[in-house]
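Hello again,

I reread your note about wanting to compare the complex against the isolated chains. To keep things tidy I'm splitting this into two emails, and this first one only covers the full assembly. Below are the input lines as submitted, including protein chains and any nucleic acid or small-molecule components. They are followed by the predicted structure of everything together. The single-chain runs will come separately.
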Amino acid sequence: MVVAFVLLLVAIASVLFHLFSPWWWTPLASNWGYIDDTITLTFWITGAVFSAVVVFMAYCVFRFHHKEGRQAAYNPENKKLEWWLSIGTAIGVAAMLAPGLVVWHQFVTVPAGATEVEVVGQQWMWSYRLPGKDGRLGTSDARDVSSDNPLGLNPNDSNGKDDIVIQNDDLHLPVGKPVKVLLRSIDVLHDFYVPEFRAKMDMIPGSVTYYWFTPTRTGTFEVLCAELCGAAHAQMRSKVIVEEEKEYHAWLEKQRTFAEVSGQHNVAKAAYKTGSE
Amino acid sequence: MVDIPFDEVAGIPPAEVGEVELYHPKSWWTRYVFSQDAKVIAIQYSLTASAIGLVALVLSWMMRLQLGFPGTFSFIDANQYLQFITMHGMIMVIYLLTALFLGGFGNYLIPLMVGARDMVFPYVNMLSYWVYLLAVLVLASTFFVPGGPTGAGWTLYPPQAILSGTPGQDWGIILMLASLILFIIGFTMGGLNYVVTVLQARTRGMTLMRMPLTVWGIFTATVMALLAFPALFVASVMLLLDRILGTSFFMPTLVEMGQLTKYGGGSPILFQHLFWFFGHPEVYIVALPAFGIISDLISVHARKNIFGYRMMVWAIVAIGALSFVVWAHHMYVSGMNPYFGFFFATTTLIIAIPTAIKVYNWVLTLWRGDIHLTVPMLFALAFIITFVNGGLTGLFLGNVVVDVPLSDTMFVVAHFHMVMGIAPIMAVFGGIYHWYPKVTGRMLNEALGRFHFWVSFLGAYAVFFPMHYLGLLGMPRRYHDIGETAFIPASAHDLNAFMSVAALIVGFAQMVFLFNLIWSLFKGKEAGGNPWGAASLEWQTPETPPGHGNWGKELPIVYRWAYDYSVPGATRDFVPQNEPPARLSAQGAHP
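Full-complex prediction:
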């Protein structure tokens, strides 16, 4: 039976492709190993169901294909069987959903000690902002965007003066420290996507979205945009460099603050004086 | 369910709407062009949908050429690639599949399957087609306007959809939205017809629980579409206002190419909620008719009643209802409140249960059947494989935390092509091979059909199965050229090239299918009225193809469900729905 054989072959080929595929996820570089585990679990359950259904079909075609004199059985329903299958399916679904929701709870619960890092998307480049010595990021607004303030930081917010601005350059992060990534866009939707970190989230003009992760190994990781953002969507690239604390601080020392970038040194001081009077 | 009510013959109440007054065409124009006959409208819908579908097929070749061999073809650049994916997606989902299943299959089969003479509002039904045609023409015109069609992606997410960084910002997006609005107006006219016809115009004895599952699928899908499309309608109108009049429904304060715009205060996420409140039911608007068609194909060609009919009906209804509370699983990483994830992941995975029941009942129908491996049956088998495959990968994407790494990658592209591209199209093909003899009176050529089947099924599987693994690797979707990317190995480019070649071969097989459709119209084997030995009502018409008014002088009376195959003791291996029990018992059947 050619048809039954081909059906069987589809099931076998799919499983073999899965087992021997050289195309697999990138080596993990964050704490989200649980996500990978949930995917693996889902592969096992769904793979078993897929194989079972296709092999069963192939068997039916092999065993019950039309021959002279064959008559089909007449059995409209079998309540018991249908209930057992439903319950079995429900258990399988629960086995995937429950761990998924547990991991999701971790995903949305940012640890208290996480450092904030802001990522700003715009057509078509990435910029970053780190809190300065005060540990706080200043406010921002798309209305404040100008050529010497491309990220639209609020010039009147004193928290923002010492913020470190990295425009259209790579982001450095220390290894092993949880990071809360605040995501912001000044024009259209973007999505800060580093495959090795597993996490991603859209950035929406007008709001600040977030996710958190802990980089777990050093290295250079490519940043892509994962939400269609116009003509040069595919070219919107950047890099995240995860390094040891010491190297990170050496890099941090060389970065410029918002006040320096926007030439606001004097303005800032003047404003401070006015404020103190 | 099973019991054939022997004593109910006299007790079958008359249909709620008895004979309707039919419009009788007076000229060639009103018979074939401005026809009010659902069968003609069905063919008009099908031909128009197929024509625009061919455009989408050619677009898919362009996309595959670009992805498989980036930089080789100078006539495809980044902008055009985005325009191709947008138009391909929109055409396939709305203008081809929705129109073909509901306007095509729905119009042809509903009156015939429920024993009506026509749709209940024939004039509105005719208008529905002409408005649909206008929508298609407006859509097609965007290829010829300055700036070309919109390249915003079929999801048309603002703000980028209406800003200048996206191709087709001048005319493309405006005409796209106008076309969608027209489509929804046209669909609503048709959809009301399908629903009212099923509810009001069934013939005597055709209870709801005796309807073929094809009718159940199309009926439920139409009800869903009538509830879901309004969300897209308002979203389209609002986006159009944002684009033309400068309102800010979906537009927050933002910068366009370095310049502050006048927009402010709107919410891009609001559009996504409206879009997916339509968009998720839309998946099932395409899937439910396919479920119904596949149930009937399997039953007829395995000469066996569909297993667990009642469960199948309730599964369709349950899926239809549940599909309205899962939409935000398309938005897990959209930046909406992340706590929504718990709710939507749960509802989404619950849908897997009624869906799985349908799959079990299909394969259990095969069990101990008398399986005729006709072309429609082959397509039905291919549907089950591709649908199960695509449905199972849906469990990855529906489970919120698993979706995070996979969303916006080629995994998603592979998933939805498998589950709502390949699978429904397998159902469409199976349906066409199955009902073509009723529509034309001739059989489609079997050898060409088998060639078409094997190339389409195995080819499409070879395109989309490996594609999941590119997504797993992290390859993002909607990239015209992945270029130099550290984590993408060279072998991934080879795989892309392989998939492109497979896609082109599948495309070629569709040309064979088109040839078969035309050739068989003239040279196909005479079919007779009921070539498959099917029990449902559409095969019992006095004429083939069915004449105006479908049933000759008297409407049929229905005595049983549509699945009396291989009934023990019956002389034939099927009992038509309109065969009176008296005659059956004379043949010595025992229910």
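For quick reference: Residues 266-277 of chain A have pLDDT under 50 and may be disordered.

B.
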